[in-house]
What we know:
Oligomer: single chain
Amino acid sequence: MLTKTLGHLSMRRNSKFADLGGGTGIFAHLLKLGVPLESDAICVDPSDAMLLNAERYRGLQTYCESAETFAHRQVPLDRILIKESIHHVRNRQSFWGKISSSLRPDGRVLVVTRPSLPELPLFKRAVNAFSESQPELEIILDEITSSSGLRAVTNTEQYHVQIPKERWYAMLRARFMSSLAGFTPDEIEDGILEVDSQIDGDQVRFTDRLFFVVIGHEPK
């Protein structure tokens, strides 16, 4: 994932970079080191608890606010990452207009997202919760290109995953996806029993399909 993201972002050492919805900051930190960037990377997330961890990394500048609020700041940027969080942006057409204005002429945005029907081993109610919050790729692309002066190219990547099922269940209990946040501990445990009934052995195997949408200005 890190290598693919670095490749699609195609950052240079002097790039001004922001991770919108960056959570704990670990991914922004690794991307900064991977280039390496000369200036601080920006990590934006509305969660104080997440950003407490991000502040431990040297070279990260944090903003405790939503991606939409940050977009209104109109900070000039060369590269922007929105990884598995575009569904949190409520007014996406307005958002893309602001992003277009702040993105430098040769700038690039990378949106990483999943299909609206996930291929992950989730219990039925979790699948429904994810699908209800996740916009279809076609809708995302239309919102990007309809009025913002941006264009988008989509690359699909597949990852074949095999992990111990107890580790997967621990991830479910930790609500590693935001769509799991609304479930109570008892509901999560019931869901784990549902998933477990469909698994043979002690390993979880699945294919994780991700869309890497590379966005830039339309050529003039």
